[in-house]
Amino acid sequence: MGRPLRSVIMRGGTSKAVFLKEADLPQDEAARTKTILQVFGSPDKRQIDGLGGADPLTSKLAIIGPARQGVERAKDTHITYTFGQVEIAHPDIDWYSLCGNISAAVGAFAIYEGMVVPTAPLTSVRCYNTNLDRVLTIEVPVENGRPLEAGDYVVPGVPGTGARIQVDFSDTAGGTTGALLPTGNPTDILTIPDFGEVEVTLIDTGNAHVFVRARDLGIKGTETAAEIDQNKPLIALLEKIRGAGAFRMGMVSSPEAARHESPATPLIGMVSEPADYHDAIADRTISADDVDVVSRLMFMQQMHKAYAATSTACTGVASQVPGTLVYEMTRPEARTALRNRREVRIGHPAGVIETETELEEVDGGYKVKRATVSRTARRIMEGYVFVPE
């Protein structure tokens, strides 16, 4: 029998992660990486010998520790949170991105573990994220001293309903690249080998993102995940665009190196105007009247079956910045966050997700004052995972 390591598995939104405590992991970086890969069963496309779920949305890690001392940004926070995207078929962990879905579960985890004093009916957990050197504010409903899991909030792509947790990503603007608009422009032109020029929006909230018009890729923008994933030439093109965007934002050493140096971010979104489309998961029609913008998202070289929480916040912010491609595709009456707080509805493959956005014009640019995502979370398992000696 291997060495026991205490772990918790939690679902946050449409993702699932293994939660580990900082103090339980080796301090040596190489030993820590080896331990985590063994916990997940990587590298192996089935992750058969570990806790990984053989899918990018379930091969996720949250390392939780006490409030970080001596870090200015971590002042007045409750906990420290490091996110890891564990590669499935490669012995790597991406530490450069942030999962917003799992961030919702982080707030509940902190209360369950006694790291934050619960206050009914809502406990605000201030969390210092090491990946972006930014603070997340996670609002968790509480009852009888414990996170409330039962409720009537629906997250498309998640069975049933749950209690609504809100995560505010406003402090993450520029967290990866140093600026909300890394190049200072609402749009840029990238030259892609064997394709030509393509217009994109490069923007950084939650995670760095590249947005491109769906029609510029020869697609409608309302395709299902299966349709996109079967289109191998499109997948290859999207990865080239993502790499070029990452290089333009200063995230990687070359466009070709993006797949290895930063496989999870930037994420790439394909945006289009509101339209009717089929939700293959729930077998229903999403009406154009129920969305303000339509988007399809690539994550780890696969199409996201729903929509990432950080991407929800970023898409909402981009929809309110004049000149971006997302702003161009967004319903005109939904573009009012510069005047007041605005809820933006994003149509994705599994339904519709809303985000509250509020921006302020400052010195010729924009300050993000609010960028929220609502999720649900559930504690699934706690116990010990046995790490091979």
UniProtKB/TrEMBL annotation:
InterPro entries xref list: PrpF-like
MF GO annotations: isomerase activity
Keyword annotations of the record: Isomerase
Entry coiled-coil feature ranges: none
Cited SUPFAM superfamilies: Diaminopimelate epimerase-like
Keyword Isomerase attributed: yes
Similarity comment: family membership: Belongs to the PrpF family.
Protein name: 3-methylitaconate isomerase
Record organism: Agaricicola taiwanensis
